[in-house]
Amino acid sequence: MKQESETLSAQQSLNIIAEMILQAKGKIQRNNFFFLFWGWVIVAANIGMYTLTQLHYGRPYVVWLITIPAWIYTLYKVFTNEKRKASTSHFDRISGWLWMCYGISIFALVFFGFKINYQLNPVILIISAIPTIVSGVILNFKPLIVGGATFWIFSIVCFLVSMETQPLIGAIAILCGYLIPGYLLKAKE
Q1: Which own/partner contact pairs does 159-168 have at CB distance under 8 Å and 24+ positions apart?
Q2: Which in 13, 113, 120, 139 has the greatest CB count within 10 A?
C-alpha cells in the first residue's frame, strides 16, 4: 500500500511539474507582446539615432528618450497582468527575475555609459543574448534561442564598425533577435 502511494505521489509530482512548465510556456508565449513592443521601440531608436547622426545633428542620442514612456508602459502592463492572473509558477518567477535583472543592467550601462565611451550597442547586445536565450530554452522555442545567439554575432560586428554605424547594426540585431522570433512566437500562440 505504501509503495502504491509513493508511485502515485511521484506521478502527481511529475504532473505538477509538467503543468508548471506548460503554464510558464503559456505566459511567455502570451508575453510575445514584450518582444514585439521592445523590438520596435529599439529598432525605431536605433534607426532614429543613425539618421540623426547622418544628418550631423548635435545630439543624436536624444531619440533614446522614447524608451522612458516605453518603460512606464511596460511596468504598467506587467503590474496589470500580475493582478489578473490567479497563480504564479516557479518558472514565472525565474523569468520575471531574469528580465528584471536584465533591465537593471541596461539602466546601469546607460547611466555609466560615459565610462566606456558610450560603446553601449555592442555591450547591450551581448547582455541581451542571455535572457533571450534562456526564455527560448524555457519555451523550447528554437527561433528565440537562435535570435538570442544572433545578438552575440551582431555585438562583435558592432565592436568592429564605427560608432556612427553601430545603431544600424543594432537595429538589424533587434530585428533578428526579437522581432522575427516574436512574430513566430505570436503565430505559434
Answers
A1: 159/119, 159/122, 163/118, 163/119, 164/50, 164/53, 164/54, 165/50, 166/119, 166/121, 166/122, 167/45, 167/46, 167/47, 167/49, 167/50, 167/53, 167/121, 168/46, 168/47, 168/50
A2: 139
Q: Which of 124, 138, 128, 131 is nearest to 167 (CA)?
A: 124
d(C-alpha 177, C-alpha 25), whole Å: 19
What stretches in the chain show pLDDT beneath 70? 1-11, 13-31, 82-89
Cell triple for 170: 543594432
The H or E element spanning position 155 is helix 142-160
Q: What is the pLDDT of residue 25?
A: 55
C-alpha cell at 135: 526564455
Rounded to a whole number, what is the distance in angstroms from the first to the last CA of the chain? Answer: 43
pTM of the model: 0.81
Cell 522555442 found at = 141
